[in-house]
Amino acid sequence: MTEATAAAHQTPEHPERVAPETDLMSKFDRLIAERQALLDSGVTDPFAIVMEQVKSPTEAVIAGKDTILLGTYNYMGMTFDPDVIQAGKDALDQFGSGTNGSRMLNGTFRDHMAVEQALRDFYGMSGAIVFSTGYMANLGMISTLAGKGEYVILDADSHASIYDGCAQGNAEIVRFRHNSVEDLDKRLGRLPKEPGKLVVLEGVYSMLGDIAPLKEMVAVAKKHGAMVLVDEAHSMGFFGPNGRGVYEDQGLEGQVDFVVGTFSKSVGTVGGFCVSNHPKFEAIRLACRPYIFTASLPPSVVATAEASIRKLMHAHNKRQHLWENAKRLHGGLTQMGFRLGTEKPDSAIIAVMLDDQEQAVAMWQALLDNGLYVNMARPPATPAGTYLLRCSLCAEHSADQIDRVLAMFQAAGKATGVLS
Ligand code: PMP
């Protein structure tokens, strides 16, 4: 460091402060430059979208413009349900705005117990534990279940929270090819027999909206003596006769050891959970650091979650409408000639695949300018270097809105040269 730079880092309040030799922030220079290049090209910053007003589960004002929301994971449209909102207001009035503490100490209120009971009822399972987010549920469950000398076997396209759960724990990590039953079988077969093994799967993979062949995978896991955890974040409420998820849809009740989920999608608030029938499941609360060492959810949040989960048990019409919307959008986009992440409308996520970042950004901006918000996703979050515009449907989208969305995709596709 030169004298001049050292002097520049001394302040009148801290004359002794000297800048460190290496700026730890310099590792972000490439990211800063990439983002700046994107902004210099004149596009709206896709990572700084502000919802200035939210009018309903499907409509918001963004940059002063009425916009249809098609990228929110608000699958069942519960965020504006009057009963859900009322439950939150009542809890705010009765219990205040926050808990000020961990579930283990002063942070368990009436409605934390009530929402865990609602989860037991929804899933028909004996155990339910609520976490502060779905991210923390995966972090906590995976790092706590699989310890030193044991194994976590996960799909290569797993969500970041699953990878981070592996990183937080001490188990050995084994990855298998996305949705490959054969590769899962092969990799499990190479492991020593005795140590504990946890196979981690997702019902719906959120980048392409494809579903896992859970039936075959659970059979393979069981053959090798592994326990199974399934993250059903993107399926709760509308897969299976009771909306429990892909595992229920594929007839796997009683065969999955742990189901992880979130309140941030179909439930319409924030929070995460794990449910299980394991007789010792409660012990997780005693050992799980992301459960113990953080504050519990505010009473208003758990009260809204409880009201929402109980309504989701009977939301058959909404479920049906959501699937109709998925079919309508998938069919329309396919007909126009867009390349999609799945051949059929397998889930409520429909991913439009584009060739490169330039195409993705141009399409995304054209849609936004016309009043449509979708999620843009790019590597490393996406599989195999793909650039995606991810659409997620809501049970509250009307058929007319979907038709308007399709017209906007057609116009944007033509304007950007993605469609010929
Ligand atoms: N699992 C999966 C598969 C997810 O997609 C997400 C969030 N997108 C999470 C877990 C984390 O959920 P939350 O938003 O509640 O942290």
Automatic annotation (TrEMBL):
What Pfam families does its record include? Answer: Aminotran_1_2
Q: Which cofactor does it need?
A: pyridoxal 5'-phosphate
Q: Where is this region: Disordered?
A: 1-21
Q: Which residues form the Aminotransferase class I/classII large domain?
A: 66-407
InterPro entries of this UniProt entry? Aminotrans_II_pyridoxalP_BS, Aminotransferase_I/II_large, AON_synthase_class-II
Keywords from the UniProt entry: Aminotransferase, Pyridoxal phosphate, Transferase
PROSITE patterns recorded for this chain? AA_TRANSFER_CLASS_2
The UniProt regions of compositional bias labelled Basic and acidic residues, in chain numbering, are 11-21
Q: Which GO terms describe its molecular function?
A: transaminase activity
Which family is this sequence assigned to?
A: Belongs to the class-II pyridoxal-phosphate-dependent aminotransferase family.
Instruction: Specify the protein name.
Output: Aminotransferase class I/II-fold pyridoxal phosphate-dependent enzyme
